[in-house]
Task: structure prediction
Amino acid sequence: MNIQAMMKQAQKMQKDMMNAKKEIDETIFEGKSSLITVEMKGTKEITKVKIAAESIESDEIEMLEDMILVAVNEAGKKVDAATEQKMGKYTKGMPGLF
Result:
């Protein structure tokens, strides 16, 4: 294989990687923790927090904070898993590149 063919192949792979990353970035991931639902973009930007307020009393604020933390972390893990699944074919087992 000559250098020009290799460069062309590398450019195509780079374009495919960028398209896959864009798809992940635009996907909404949801994390839940009993009374809390969090939606997060693939960029890990939180877009929505929903609280089942009818089930919460004023003295349960600390518990509510913990549930938000759990839901946000769950959504973040889903982003990481989707990124690894889609981008793993490009990184060949080198986690953390994206």
